[in-house]
Amino acid sequence: MTETGIGAAVRRTEDQRFLTGNGNYTDDINVFGQTYAAFVRSPHAHAKINGINSTAAAAADGVVAILTGEELAADGVGPLICGWNIAGKNGVEAHNSPVHHALAMGKVNYVGDHVALVVAETQAQADSAAEMVEVDYEELPAVIGTGKALNHATTIHEEAPGNMCYDWEIGDASATDAAFANAAHTTTIEIVNNRVIPNAMEPRACLAQFNKGTGDWTLHVTSQNPHVHRLVMSAFNGVAPEHKLRVIAPDVGGGFGSKIFIYAEEVVCTWATRKVGRPIKWTAKRSESFLCDAHGRDHVSKAELALDADGKFLGLRVNTKANLGSYLSTFASAVPTYMYATLLAGTYTTPAIYCDVQGVFTNTAPVDAYRGAGRPEATYLLERVVETAAREMNIDPADLRRRNYIQPDAFPYQTPVVHQYDIGDYGASLDKACDMADVGGFAARRADSESRGKRRGLGYSSYIEACGIAPSAAVGALGGGVGLWESADIRFNATGSVTVMTGTHNHGQGHETAFAQVISEKLGVPIENIEIVEGDTDKGPFGMGTYGSRSIAVGGSAIVKAADKIVEKGKKIAAHCLEAAEDDIEFAGGNFTVAGTDKVMNIAEVAFTAYVPHNYPEGVEPGLHEQAFYDPLNFSFPAGVHICEVEIDPTTGETEIVNYTAVDDFGTIINPMIVEGQVHGGIGQGVGQAMLEGANYDENGQLVTGSYMDYTMPRADNLPNFNVGTTSTPSPLNPLGVKGAGEAGAIASPPAVINAITDACGGAMIDMPATQEKVWQACQAAE
Amino acid sequence: MYGFDYHRPGSVADAASALGGADDGKYLAGGQTLLATMKQRLASPSDLVDLGGIADLKGITVSGGSVSIGATTTHAEVAASADVQGAIPALAAMAGDIGDRQVRNAGTIGGSLANNDPAADYPAAILALGATITTNKRQIAADDFIVGMFETALEEDEIITSVSFPAPTSAAYMKFKQPASRFALVGVFVAKTAGGVRVAVTGATSVAHRGPKLEAALNENFSASAVDGVQIPVDHMNVDIHAGAEYRANLVKVMAKRAVEACG
Ligand SMILES: Cc1cc2nc3c(=O)[nH]c(=O)nc-3n(C[C@H](O)[C@H](O)[C@H](O)COP(=O)(O)OP(=O)(O)OC[C@H]3O[C@@H](n4cnc5c(N)ncnc54)[C@H](O)[C@@H]3O)c2cc1C
Q: Which of A445, A593, A641, B199 has a Cα-to-Cα distance from A546 of 20 to 30 A?
């Protein structure tokens, strides 16, 4: 291992600019003649619009234009799309897909829905004019509540009778029923996965410009996938031809999924900038982020686990109602189906699994991928039902898991629900985690807590996730409308420095450092001579972006492929210059050497020769610049075991996480410090969901948790010092052996926390978020 | 935020006349409540009269067994004051646990009391410690100052100039925080004073108030176990997404016990 190569804990080079206030975010960018946008938003969850009167608003100070859905439609701008079709039960080929206008056409369907765009000279003028737009609403009853939406008295969309988007299933129903018929024990739970609001530090923003001279648009936008933004906005919304639209996602302050999606704001501003002839800036106010960023999770499920007398899992049967919100966001349909139920085997050999999912519409913000996307929902459900079964059968929960683990010699392992796992050693992670968490000393610690009038609990979570999304053909077969390969472009400069462009996007993950480490390792170039360029459709090759912990597994593999091509070409050039046969050239540590001699040429010299090809091999093109596209062979499957220990004050329900252990198998780790940071952040988010966060709509569809005064984000003092370790079974299916680490913490932690809390409170079910009040009530009931 | 005219008078008298001359003016202290409501366009005063330039309103003095705190003294200054820490450590600790560092460096005692948020801490402190509020017009006893939810005895243009706290024998404040805002979900301030035990509760109901039943029980027997016997009525408790009435009533009891124990 070199000091800056794979495996080194290199400090993140990008942090210098982030931590010194020199980042360059969308809202930091200002251009000549810029105007400001404010959206008129629906104050009602569900209403007809009988008319919009903007006469007074249009006459207000500084107003440049007020535009509505009628004008958007008249200009042929298409509605917002969902890119993944879900075929349903009984041969239904397509899900119900209500039209999602970027600006309302006669009806609004959630509080915050987009009614009109106001463009003005200043933000304050735009905000004031937006207040003056008179909208004649006729309120309709709101459909609220994941479990209540189906066949509600009110239908939100004509295209979705009974408020159903789809009724989908996976697995073998009759085999699963048979497993239950033979079960010695059945454990049944009803379980809610609470809705959360993403809360990226930087709110969404865009700056749209149109150049009359060239007919080009430039859109700066807070995006995790600028090429996907460009593709969708040109192919589906039709706001600009693909080759005339440049999408730039500059520094982006966190996404967690919420910046994958193509939202109304950027579509409308890109359309409007040409119409009004001025650049338009929009930056979400935090209250708009709460209302309109796609929310996450929101499932209501019933899970049944069939076991034999020894605790072997025989079958798992699940029904889930998934709240999709008022419209389908960009990838919403896939999250509670293929991102979710395909993970229900977990790390276990359960032979029969059946799950059906009803995706429902409600008058709430759209719901889509949020850190983990489907996999946290699967893990939470599975690990809660497993822990509950262990308690019911009086089997040690670690032991029950061990009895059911897929064994290391069983790979590749085909689950009953689509995925084929490549490799893993779940028992190794469990053993290490039990050791690190000192599970053996728990009984004594519990006795000590009890002597102080406290309660103590321990909870496990044994998770697996599917990352590195995804093989394009598999995605296509499951209804996805895109390919999920990745690209890399390595350009040596004549002086030996390297510019690397990839289609992924860095919004907190540390790509600028980790990708440079891969290049440094593979090509022997010092990392200070490597520039990683992402986020600009005019610079890098087409790429699919960053989500689903895919960047290193898919993007990193593309980088390796391109690096291999550089080495291949470099060998030809070195062989010529060193007067040796190409086959005799070896490459290591940045040097091309003639095997068995001391004749050597550094890659920087090769690069110079390639650009100044005075003495050059015949038939070889000048330049040292290679590109690669990589389509993964399979998903990657990070897995691990998290153990949470809590102490509770039963008089108040105050819950302290006194010990938190995470053992993760991420395969090869490029930068352990970055990975540890990702694990910490993920656990923080998972603890947030488990104990603190929860989007709360009242029965009229008003978001009660619409600000930080009521929506509880996890803070440093809610979290302990994490006890983090790893095991490693490198993935055999990609060249780096990596698996992805961005979401694991958020996937693994909620069940670990809730299993610990319920363990402390006598075992009764507690739904997330396990607020102090709920914990207090559970303690009361247990006493 | 809507537009407004800004004034920065150098004296209390000038401040009062600036407000008197305004259409719909407001005094501005730390701005931690007022500016946020203006930014959200929930308040639109025509004029802001900034009290920050009035030297007389700032500072802490101790004399004759009581601590006097100028109205524009920040929470951070109260928390860090050796005088307050020496005379009424519970008050310094309370101020040091308001909001976060930024809030404490800007927010003031006068602003907090004039605002009288039902979940704020200072209202409990003045009630339990039997403080006196001095304004540009008069002196008001704490029990008369707190009137209702966001409502005080202050007249439209009246300015709090200082607050005087008689030092208790011992006192303690226990705050159970609302998890998101970290205001008091329930806060209980217990003080042993020359005139007996005083207890004030904030966060639990629509306004901070004295706890006469708790006071009676504690005057008889100043111990945590005495609190056990007190029935905390649930019917006036606030009910919101963070806590129901039963839970809040329970917290009143638990916080009262903890405060009594901390008083020693
Ligand atoms: C994030 C956050 C967390 C907070 N947490 C807490 C907490 O835990 N506990 C708590 O108690 N408070 C908390 N607060 C409120 C904080 O204590 C503020 O200091 C207080 O609400 C208002 O004080 P201010 O000096 O900022 O007043 P301003 O916001 O400037 O004014 C508030 C009101 O008082 C009036 N006013 C101000 N000074 C005077 C005066 N001298 N005479 C007459 N009227 C006056 C103003 O006209 C205005 O109506 C929090 C605030 C924030 C933003």
A: A641
